[in-house]
Inverse folding.
């Protein structure tokens, strides 16, 4: 022992990673069954929340895909004051599917694509 540890009586122990088997044994230990039950309940709760969110948001996915496809062929002008359409057919197909005229679509255009898509879906 060196002088510092003999005066304080502190024993230096280097830490080591636990082996994987030891970690899983701890989970299965009787003292940790409450923790395992809590984790399982949390997992079930999260699965239920995912189901609720999916059921709430999935009806909009068809509309969002349509909006996404519609804006694939659109490029904003550098001044952001007008919209240039690369493919007229794509734009007119999207207008027909949404039953929205080009003028109304231009009025619904927002600062970002996300807010524009939301405005179109709300319309």
């Amino acid at each position: 022992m060196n002088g510092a540890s003999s005066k304080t009586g502190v024993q230096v122990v280097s830490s080591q990673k636990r082996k994987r088997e030891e970690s899983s044994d701890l989970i299965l230990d009787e003292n940790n069954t409450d923790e395992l039950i809590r984790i399982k309940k949390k997992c079930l709760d999260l699965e239920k929340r995912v189901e609720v969110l999916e059921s709430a948001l999935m009806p909009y996915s068809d509309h969002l895909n349509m909006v996404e496809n519609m804006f694939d062929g659109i490029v904003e002008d550098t001044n952001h004051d007008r919209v240039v359409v690369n493919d007229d057919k794509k734009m007119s197909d999207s207008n027909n599917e949404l039953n929205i005229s080009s003028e109304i679509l231009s009025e619904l255009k927002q600062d970002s694509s996300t807010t524009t898509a939301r405005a179109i879906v709300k319309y």
